[in-house]
Amino acid sequence: MNESAWDGTLSASEFSASAQAFAEKWKLNNPAYPPWTWVKSLEVPIFATNQVEEGYLSLENVCIVKSNDDEVASCVEGEASLYDKEDEESTDSATLSGNDNVQPYYFDFHIIYSASFRVPVLYFRAYCSDGRSLGLNEIESVLPANSAKVLLESKWTFITQEEHPYLNRPWCKLHPCGSSDWMKLLFQAVEKVDRPAMELYLVSWFSVVGPVIGLGIPIQMLKEP
Amino acid sequence: MKEAQEFVWMGAIPLQIHLHESEVTTVPPPPPALILAPRIGYLPLLLPLIKPYFSSTLPPGVDTVWFEYKGLPLKWYIPTGVLFDLLCAEPERPWNLTIHFRGYPSHLLIPCEGEDSVKWNFINSLKEADYIINGNCKNVMHMSQSDQLELWNSVVNANLEAFIRSSSKLKSGTIEDDYASKSSLSSQKSQKMIGEADTSVQTKTGKVPVRLYVWNVSEDFGDMEDAPPIDSWDRISYVNRPLEIHREEGKCFTLHDAIKTLLPELFGKKRKPSEGENDEQSFGSEEETKNNRMTEEGEGNISQPLETGSTADDDPEIKLLRIQGIEPKLETPISWVANHLRHPENFLHVCVYIKVPSAKSL
User: Fold this and answer.
1) Which domain holds residue B309?
2) What whole-number distance in Å separates Cα of residue A23 and Cα of residue A203?
3) How many other CB atoms are found less than 10 A from the CB of residue B200?
4) Alpha carbon separation from B61 to A147, B24, B65, B105, B312 (Å, rounded)
5) What's the rounded Cα separation, in Å, for the pair B336 and B178?
């Protein structure tokens, strides 16, 4: 095996470092969105792994609005909790532009490291303003037309319903099987480097994955600070 | 190797399946179904055997089948034998389960649309194991649909001969191990080995697919009978992380080493292979680099540190470790355990009950 050829994967500690870098850049360049937070998985199971502070990135209560004319979803600032699932009270701070026929959906996104595939994996779930969870088919129909298209046409991205690795609940997952392949391609073709600065891994990864679920990232994030 | 594989494939759990009372519409209620379930199989696959017992008594509607043990909805994608080993501290024979045909708890369990869902899950696990062992999913991806189906059917029917035929196309390989090679020399002459023919084939990455189910028992109990029931999946820590085997000259990487490697926060930072046979009782923590680790990570809130120079009282106690219904000695070489006790999708499923001393808050 060629030692110098990068296989498109990253280690657990590289993931943690990359997650931090990603969250910082996001905060800087994407002020319209709430920030990503790092959730220590210690808070759920009883232990962490090796030298790495095991955890995952979380972005919750993101409001995605599908307007009638199927344009790219507009996203609205979500404060601490747009919808407090515990109390069943919904504080709707969403600003909807005029159209009465839009239905806001709320998404939670978690970026979790897969030790088996050595890549990040996107987990998400969606619910209505009344707290009702959306099924897989509903989610696919709710996603903006552009991302639905990406989903259908790409052989590398498909969504399945699986159990969240830590939370013992069904979530949707973007399948990781091809991730290392397209990450490798991305860096070779676009960045023209054999091996990326690992801190940038997540930013690049998200530039591919984000649009699939209706979250774009501003171009500034892809540039060096 | 074949004997062990036969042992694993023939393993079965006698089940006594009761229809949930809310779904009984006849008087008297139907008697429970008595089913022998293969350990390596999955509960939803038993439906064709179970349904006839209850079909005349079910209320009208569409079936959404799920199983439950003492109030705990069972995760259908965990092999039956593993569920039994994990949830029955004291093995219950027959194992009394409740079946529901209505009211699927979709907020807790991922949907199951019959055999197809189970098959899909199995093939995905097979791919994951393939990736862990070989660094890619090519072996599974290159299997034709009909070969995959053949492989799957052999699992459904717990048919080892058929499985051996189908999986020869899979080339899963075995974990290289100095200890197995001696025995394989003699047995190679007597039987056709599957995968074993390549005992010299080293897994490319030196990684073993393992799924660990850890129950941290907070209370002390003498007999397994007194173990408190598991009333929620949140009490179980599920570790789905490849085991990296580090070979050292003259040292054997044991099952005990494997557990310590997979649960480093409980057993000390970096595991070393067992020094010798006397090691089995001591769960000593590794003092050296613990302090380095704390400073490296900066925030320092990674874990509650293990005491340096801790006595045996401070260490977590493995109260029980079960694989395929047996409790292997901790000093067994992990390569033997993984090669012989793995499931058809090539994962080794290990159930562990651990008691962490209360001094350590986690």
Assistant:
1) 205-360
2) 9
3) 10
4) 36, 13, 12, 16, 58
5) 10
CATH code for the domain of B315 = 3.10.20.90
- Per the structure, how many domains does chain B have? 3
Whether A177 sits among the annotated catalytic residues: the reply is: yes
- Rounded-to-integer distance, Cα A41 and Cα A164, Å: 12
Greater confidence (A179 vs B218) lies with A179
Amino acid at B275: E
Contact B110, A163 (CB under 8 A): yes
The torsion region of residue B92 among left (phi > 0), alpha (psi -120 to 50) and beta comes to beta
Of the candidates B128, B264, B266, the beta carbon closest to that of A116 is on: B128
**Which residues in chain B touch residue A38, judged by CB atoms under 8 angstroms apart?**
none
Q: Is B124 contained in some domain? A: yes
Rounded to two decimals, the ipTM of the complex is: 0.79
Residue B143 falls within a domain, yes or no? yes
List chain B residues with CB under 8 Å of A117.
128, 131
Residues B47 and B130 in one domain: no
Same domain, yes or no, for B137 and B80?
Answer: no
**A164: alpha, beta or left, given left = phi > 0 and alpha = psi -120 to 50?**
beta
Tokens of B107: 């907020």
Class of domain A3-213: alpha beta
> Which amino acid, residue B150?
E
The model carries a pTM of 0.80
Is B105 a domain residue?
no
Mark yes or no for CB contact B264/A163 under 8 Å.
no
Judging contacts by C-beta atoms under 8 Å, the chain B residues touching residue A50 are 264, 269-270
Catalytic residue chosen out of the listed positions A63, A128, A172, A177: A177
CATH code of the domain in which B121 resides:
1.10.246.190
**Mean pLDDT in residue range A93-102:** 48
Q: With beta carbons less than 8 A apart as the criterion, state whether A123 and A171 touch.
A: yes
CATH number at residue B47: 3.10.20.620
B18 assigned to some structural domain: yes
SS3 content of chain A, % helix, strand, coil (to 5): 30, 25, 45
**Does the CA dihedral B56-B58-B62-B68 come out positive or negative?**
negative
- pLDDT for B42-98, tens place per residue? 999 999 999 999 988 888 888 899 999 999 999 999 999 999 999 998 999 999 999
Cα distances (angstroms) measured from residue B195 to each of A215, B140, B174 = 45, 15, 6
Any alpha helices (H) in chain B, and if so which ranges? 2-10, 47-54, 80-87, 115-134, 138-141, 145-156, 160-167, 178-190, 255-262, 264-267, 290-296, 334-341
